[in-house]
């Protein structure tokens, strides 16, 4: 009875808030959007962290920016550790250093300017602190529930574009790389380590595409070359609204793994930094990707893991089992 009354009150409130327009998406919830009622929510959980507007925004758009979430002090610590890693003063186990395709192998000297991305920092205590920050996990739980695995970690150091446009990240869906489901229990947290806008290559997202399915991905045919693992979608709706997500240092965007997104060229002289982690509910289940659009990426990742670490994983599932770390609650099936 009490519950019934609460829903009626909530529904009245929702009606007061009015409808939303898909054509006018901003990077943040604005008052006035109320298409859904809580019982229809499927991408967010009711744990008293997100407001109704924030939940509606994510349900509708597949991403949500939380302003000023990570402190300057923490970001400084991540930056300092990243620089130490680049100078090879520390060599965390499992860490992979990537360089932009425009930099030849012979040109490589260990310094920050040569590294476009570090990934798999699960064994680096200092960087991995990002994945355990209570302020991050508090929001992650809204999407995954209480048992949380940190599955994929990255610090992206988008270099100034050399003119070859290789600093772009093609439009893609992160689920392409993941052999676990359901997708609604996976979320990416991506934190700006400085002001990020279209000049230094902010994220661009296609709102609402998280409601679609996983599309085939492949390397784009770019004249200047494409970075390793930068698979993109060829077939996307060019008329879909695009949102360029301008962010300040510490702002964090949470987004769904089916959301089509990418990032543009870095037209500045600086190295644009962001730190991110993909989290998943620990009761997600592995799937066999053989015979699916993910078969090719499975082979590429398994081969790379062998080349890089000498590990015979044999399947995407084993790669992710090896990388995943529990950050909250209980490890169940991942
Ligand atoms: O930081 C960026 O430029 C894009 C990162 C991204 O979309 C990814 O690595 O999946």
TrEMBL record:
<dbReference type="GO" id="GO:0006720">
    <property type="term" value="P:isoprenoid metabolic process"/>
</dbReference>
<dbReference type="GO" id="GO:0048244">
    <property type="term" value="F:phytanoyl-CoA dioxygenase activity"/>
</dbReference>
<dbReference type="GO" id="GO:0008198">
    <property type="term" value="F:ferrous iron binding"/>
</dbReference>
<dbReference type="Pfam" id="PF05721">
    <property type="entry name" value="PhyH"/>
</dbReference>
<dbReference type="InterPro" id="IPR008775">
    <property type="entry name" value="Phytyl_CoA_dOase-like"/>
</dbReference>
<comment type="similarity">
    <text>Belongs to the PhyH family.</text>
</comment>
<dbReference type="GO" id="GO:0001561">
    <property type="term" value="P:fatty acid alpha-oxidation"/>
</dbReference>
<keyword id="KW-0223">Dioxygenase</keyword>
<dbReference type="GO" id="GO:0031418">
    <property type="term" value="F:L-ascorbic acid binding"/>
</dbReference>
<keyword id="KW-0408">Iron</keyword>
<dbReference type="GO" id="GO:0097731">
    <property type="term" value="C:9+0 non-motile cilium"/>
</dbReference>
<protein>
    <recommendedName>
        <fullName>Phytanoyl-CoA dioxygenase, peroxisomal</fullName>
        <ecNumber>1.14.11.18</ecNumber>
    </recommendedName>
</protein>
<keyword id="KW-0560">Oxidoreductase</keyword>
<dbReference type="GO" id="GO:0006103">
    <property type="term" value="P:2-oxoglutarate metabolic process"/>
</dbReference>
<comment type="pathway">
    <text>Lipid metabolism; fatty acid metabolism.</text>
</comment>
<keyword id="KW-0479">Metal-binding</keyword>
<dbReference type="GO" id="GO:0097089">
    <property type="term" value="P:methyl-branched fatty acid metabolic process"/>
</dbReference>
<dbReference type="InterPro" id="IPR047128">
    <property type="entry name" value="PhyH"/>
</dbReference>
<keyword id="KW-0847">Vitamin C</keyword>
<dbReference type="GO" id="GO:0005777">
    <property type="term" value="C:peroxisome"/>
</dbReference>
